[in-house]
């Protein structure tokens, strides 16, 4: 390789470095983690109510 080829490769490398930019976003990054836990709560309440009825049958006559 001669000096001219090496210099051209160096200039090409310098020219390409200006194409890549890392910049912080203007707005904050928002991560939406909406998770529904309704089913777990309902099942737990159903079990608690069932245990309450079974342990206190005089409070809940049928």
UniProtKB/TrEMBL annotation:
Alphabetical list of Pfam families matching this protein: Lipoprotein_19 (PF13617)
Keyword line: Lipoprotein
InterPro entries, A to Z: YnbE
Superkingdom assignment: Bacteria
PROSITE patterns for the chain: PROKAR_LIPOPROTEIN
Name assigned to this protein: YnbE family lipoprotein
Annotated organism of origin: Sphingobium limneticum
Upper classification of the organism: Bacteria, Pseudomonadati, Pseudomonadota, Alphaproteobacteria, Sphingomonadales
């Amino acid at each position: 390789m001669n000096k001219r080829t090496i210099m051209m490769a160096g200039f090409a490398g310098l020219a390409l470095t200006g194409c890549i930019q890392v910049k912080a976003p203007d707005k904050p990054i928002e991560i939406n983690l909406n998770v529904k836990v309704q089913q777990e709560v309902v099942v737990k309440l159903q079990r608690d109510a069932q245990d309450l009825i079974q342990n206190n049958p005089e409070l809940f006559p049928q």
